[in-house]
Amino acid sequence: MSEHPIEGMMETTLEKIRQMVDVNTVMGDPVTTPDGTVIIPISKISYGFASGGSDLPSKAHPEKEYFGGGAGAGVTVTPLGFLTISGGNVRLLQIDPYNSSADRVIGMIPEVADKINEFFAARKAEKQEKLEKEPEKDVTLEDPQV
């Protein structure tokens, strides 16, 4: 039994989609900037396909049937953001605006954590600087009873 023409159309459509969409489309090739920062583009892929057809009888040749059909596909690549790696810190720089308050909070967590670390590092540096500037005090214990 031979393959039905619709099977060939669907197979060709799916093969073309596979050729267009691979993992490198979702997670792009890393780019290293002169300062050593690694930037990785991240995208969302949406695709769909449809195919259909029908066997048509022939009036001229009743023993033979004809096939009429078609297939189509669409692919959308939407950039979402960039993953940046710099100095041991990993950040997601989102392109699209935040959809909800929860998305905004999650997106701000790395920035807030960096600000808190900077604050504590600055306070520690101030304390250290203050200790270094104070003159050393000569403390001698005198016994008042002597």
Automatic annotation (TrEMBL):
Pfam families: Spore_YtfJ (PF09579). Residues 126-140 have a biased composition (Basic and acidic residues). Residues 126-146 are annotated as: Disordered. InterPro entries: Spore_YtfJ. NCBIfam families: spore_ytfJ. This is GerW family sporulation protein. It comes from Candidatus Caccousia stercoris. The lineage of its organism: Bacteria, Bacillati, Bacillota, Clostridia, Eubacteriales. The gene is ytfJ.
